[in-house]
Amino acid sequence: MKVGRLLLRATVGAFFIGHGTQKLFGWFGGQGLKKQAEHFDGMGLKPGIVNAAAAGVAETFGGAGVLLGYRTPLASAALISTMLTAINRVHLKNGPWSHKGGYEYNAVLIAAATSLAESGPGALSLDALRGKEKQGAFWGVFSLGVGAAGAAGAHFLIESRKGATPAPVAEHNGTGSGDVPAPTNEAPTAVHEPVNGSAEHEPVAEPSEADAETES
């Protein structure tokens, strides 16, 4: 059992560290914080820079805590929070199966983190070396509850930011509010079409009787 828990901690913790540092620093082929923030903005997770940084920090430090067996209930809660947020904001609409972009992998990681919080990290851990290893059903429920609270807080923060975003103001060319220009009392200006390259059509004078008599 000690070997099994150590293997589970090493696997889950290491991969979470990898995902977190991909977001924060662009390690292991990741995008880095700037591009990750743009990606989060595109998914509606605004402000993207805040959410990307929070996810990267939670995954990195939560993964490190699980890997080392340090403050395991809190480390597990951090990982559970990020996975619940991912399910809520990205995967839930796709159903459970991962090949369709679903949440099955996230659910497995949540179960693994909760299990580690309940069973404790084992003798080969920093918590055990410090004499502060926590174990029991209470700590499993504690991690799950704290993780759910963190995910709920992230959800409400994102939704409140959406409501606070001002609506775009349409530009008007001096016509007042609205898209329809205000009516005016000015007479329409006649438009003269060019004739033979001239800018305006000049009126042609009618011949007078005096001119007719002169020609005759």
Explain how this protein is built.
The protein has one domain (2-164). It has helices at residues 2-25, 32-42, 48-68, 72-91, 104-119, 126-129, 137-164, 209-215. With 216 residues, the protein is mainly alpha-helical. Helices cover 61% and strands 0% of the residues. The chain is globular. It is built from eight helices and no strands. Mean pLDDT is 83; it is low at 174-181, 188-204 and 208-216. The termini are far apart.
Topology:
Elements: H1 2-25, H2 32-42, H3 48-68, H4 72-91, H5 104-119, H6 126-129, H7 137-164, H8 209-215
Helix pairs in contact: 1-3, 1-5, 2-3, 3-4, 4-5, 4-7, 5-7
Number of helices: 8
Can you tell me the number of structural domains? 1
Q: Please give the oligomerization state of what you see.
A: single chain
Distance linking N and C termini? 131 Å
- Our estimate of the beta-strand percent is under 5%
Characterize the biggest β-sheet: none
Structural class: mainly alpha
What would you report as the Rg, rounded to the nearest angstrom? Answer: 35 Å
The count of β-strands is 0
- Give helix % range: 55-70%
| Unreliable runs | 174-181, 188-204, 208-216
Shape: globular
Order of helices and strands: HHHHHHHH
Mean pLDDT figure:
83
